[in-house]
Amino acid sequence: MSGTWIEVDLDAIVNNYQEIIKHLHPKARCMAVVKADAYGLGAVQVALALEQVGCEAFAVTKVEEGIILRKSGIKGLILVLGPTTQEEWPEAIKSQLQLTITELSLIAKLNEVCLSLYQAAHVQLKLETGMGRTGFRLEELSELSKLLGSADCLKVRGVYTHFARAAQRDKRYTLEQYATFKALVARLEELGINPEWKHVCNSAAYLDYPEWHLDFVRIGTLLIGHYPGPGYSGKLSLKDPWIAKSRIVHLRKVPKGTYVGYQSIYRTKSTTQLAVIPVGYADGLGIAPHFVPQGWVDFIKIVIKNFAALIGIFLGQERVELGGRTVRVAGKIGMQLTVLDVGMQACTLGDEVRIPLRRTLANPRIHRKYKQGGRILSERTIEEGLSTTNTEYSL
């Protein structure tokens, strides 16, 4: 895929982190959420850049993500947010990852694994307050206390929850979730469980509720230069670290009336140039997540956007740019090749085209070029190995 690549500006990531910590409560710290390969930017490179400027904590969803960070030299706290399996525990414990506990039946088994390794595990408790996914409910806390009291190798460091609707205009549900969290924590304390860290804020709650910053805020969306919703735009001076590009690999002039692509749904309206770029659905071009409309206005926007895409017009962020000008996709996007109608604009083979690839949907095999201080630091593909370093971990 040498004709297609992604440029990741690490200076932009650092800028966003520094903007975030400017507005933190004095006692709080930022836990950088680098799950899903840092939303496609590259978890290792992003975490290393953030650790260099003082970030002390990172969050991932899976054990394997945390182990990759450790083997790449990350020294700070690494919290695994998602459920884990017994097969993953030995390596996770050896790597000093902090595991999230959400199920009563696993506590004794995790403790047994720690005993077999002669090593304690630092864990955090997830509380269910309304997300409906994982976490302990009020009726489970008494049993949780008993089980933890018998698990001498488990050191409870933190307790947290996750908000379901923090970015929505109606804040009532989020307020209810926070009230539930406080009640559950109070009950834990009554039972003798007193974790030193508490955290609830995602990117939206961080912006809306500075009084809830507590010990950590878990930030992902803002770090990658996005706001959690339109109503938050401009609250921080964020920079977008992501640019996806491809090159023209075939170019020819065609007459008016030329059919292009599968099903011949596109026909040129005048003499023009057709440019082929080596990128398509297999790379994430034209693929978008399914969003449930939040009301009729949202529904109409989605319908209009999809209809425009059908005829090769990309609205919003879905723009293909050549020489600073938006150009049209001619017909259907192919699996690995896409045709552009570039008009009679001056261009040639090898010219760069800026393409709309969503971070989490872009093929991980596409080259990432990391920029910092005005220069390219490295290129990475998924096949590249990761160096192993011996480190002592903090927190």
Automatic annotation (TrEMBL):
What name is this protein filed under? Alanine racemase
Cofactors (names): pyridoxal 5'-phosphate
**PTM sites of type N6-(pyridoxal phosphate)lysine:** 35
Gene3D superfamilies per record: Alanine racemase, Lyase, Ornithine Decarboxylase, Chain A, domain 1
Highest lineage ranks of the organism? Bacteria, Bacillati, Bacillota, Clostridia, Eubacteriales
The Alanine racemase C-terminal domain covers which part of the protein?
A: 241-371
Species: Desulfosporosinus hippei DSM 8344
Q: Where does substrate bind?
A: 133, 335
InterPro entries in the record: Ala_racemase, Ala_racemase/Decarboxylase_C, Ala_racemase_C, Ala_racemase_N, Ala_racemase_pyridoxalP-BS, PLP-binding_barrel
GO terms classed as biological process: D-alanine biosynthetic process
